[in-house]
Design brief:
Elements: H1 8-14, E1 24-27, E2 61-64, E3 69-90, E4 100-106, E5 113-117, H2 118-121, E6 134-140, E7 145-155, E8 159-162, E9 164-169, H3 171-174, E10 182-183, H4 195-200, E11 203-204, H5 208-214, H6 216-227, E12 231-236, H7 246-260, E13 264-267, E14 294-296, E15 299-301, H8 304-331, H9 339-354, H10 372-390
Parallel strand pairs: 10-11, 11-12, 12-13
Antiparallel strand pairs: 1-3, 2-8, 3-6, 3-7, 3-9, 4-5, 4-7, 14-15
Helix pairs in contact: 7-8, 7-9, 8-9, 8-10, 9-10
Length: 392
């Protein structure tokens, strides 16, 4: 088959190319004069393969006496990496096949994981032509890793050429279902969870009481997930709901969500009714009652807990409004007189409000200070009012 594309390469071609049209960096700068041009910065992920004599085509990227040549692709988000291919040519004019094509992946471009050598994994089913000019794609679908960044380190002397790099992800990504992949992991130590699961998910929704109980390592894990492109939500599913503190369980979740950059807040479960669909007959319920409302056969009534959920949503929106206003002010030069107060309330103010969240404060019967959120909310509204009055 033309260009050596067969077997595993066909399977790769049928999968989603998560590197397509993604930006990348080259190190060192390409220096083979017959193919080097300004297009080198986009040609390796444009989905197009060159025709004609390989290293004289402008769609090829080439180096002379550069070992290794590094191509680092930014996939834009953490992906579960299953395969990579490298398209090249050799056989005449002193051009040899690569000695190695190391594939590495990283979530943050600081810590890298070695996934394999395409010169080994990509020649299991077929090998490059030994004599004469030929094209070849080193390709494998046997990689097992994840990362936002994929780097191919190529060693080839004295010349190194490539015209296209493809990377594909786990089959669930390749299916292109057009759905958002949601996961609510329940690992008390998320570092022991399946890395592929985390990489494949679009939305990660950790349990709020678990996060509060496990402390900073748990929280930091999910904040790192957020930093590499995952959307965060929070949820709670403790009960019986009417015994839980409306402030320290229901309302505080929205504040914690804002503090860690989460975009959603959920509770199990609004229509519960203790297994009989009736919150009013607690003595007859066969399961825990999780609803923050009073659910009955003839309707639903608000309560302290549902009102706390509503107030938490409003708190989150006020905080978001102030945060966006502060960001606009910083972009404009940071000269707004109200900006220091905004930054203070968004920082230490929010920290003061969420201090009520602790395992010992979960239940309503426990005495605690429930005034911090209202006090911080007033500070937020005061700054928003000042911004409105000054028209900035």
């Amino acid at each position: 088959m033309s260009g050596g594309l067969a077997g595993v390469a066909l399977a790769c071609a049928a999968a989603e190319n998560v590197a397509l049209h993604k930006p990348y960096t080259l190190s060192p700068v390409p220096n083979y004069s017959y193919c080097t041009d300004v297009g080198d910065r986009v040609q390796l992920t444009d989905g197009e393969y060159v025709r004609g004599y390989f290293w004289t085509q402008k769609g090829t990227v080439g180096w002379t006496h550069a070992a290794p040549a590094l191509v680092t692709i930014d996939l834009g988000r953490v992906e579960p990496i299953r395969g990579v291919s490298w398209s090249c040519a050799a056989g005449v004019a002193g051009v040899a096949w690569p000695e190695c094509l190391y594939v590495l992946a990283s979530d943050d471009r600081k810590s890298w994981t070695f996934l394999g050598d395409l010169c080994e994994l990509g020649t299991v089913e077929r090998t490059p032509q030994e004599k004469g000019y030929a094209l070849f794609r080193y390709a494998t679908d046997k990689l097992r890793g994840h990362g936002r960044y994929v780097c191919v380190a190529a060693a080839a002397q004295p010349y190194c050429f490539v015209d296209e790099i493809v990377a594909w992800a786990l089959a669930i990504r390749a299916a292109k279902l057009g759905v958002t992949l949601f996961e609510d992991p329940t690992y008390t130590d998320p570092t022991k969870g399946d890395p592929e699961m985390f990489a494949a998910s679009d939305v990660l929704c950790p349990n709020t009481p678990m996060m509060v109980a496990q402390g900073e390592p748990f929280r930091a894990f999910y904040q790192r997930q957020h930093e590499v492109g995952k959307t965060l939500w929070l949820y709670s599913c403790s009960g019986p709901a009417k015994l839980l503190d409306p402030i320290a369980y229901h309302r505080v979740q929205a504040w914690l969500a804002f503090q860690m950059g989460a975009e959603g807040s959920f509770y199990w479960a609004f229509g519960c009714g203790g297994g009989i669909g009736d919150s009013w007959r607690a003595d007859e319920q066969v399961y825990n009652e999780y609803s923050p409302y009073f659910v009955g056969p003839d309707g639903v009534m608000e309560g302290k807990h549902s009102e706390a959920v509503r107030e938490g949503v409003q708190d989150y929106e006020y905080l978001r409004m102030l945060s966006e206003a502060a960001q606009r002010a910083r972009t404009a030069g940071g000269g707004a007189a109200w900006l220091p107060r905004a930054e203070a309330v968004l920082g230490e103010g929010v920290a003061q409000a969420v201090a009520v969240a602790s395992p010992s404060n979960l239940f309503w019967r426990v005495e605690k200070d429930r005034t911090a959120m209202d006090a911080v909310r007033v500070r937020v509204l005061d700054v928003l009012e000042e911004i409105k009055e000054k028209g900035r």
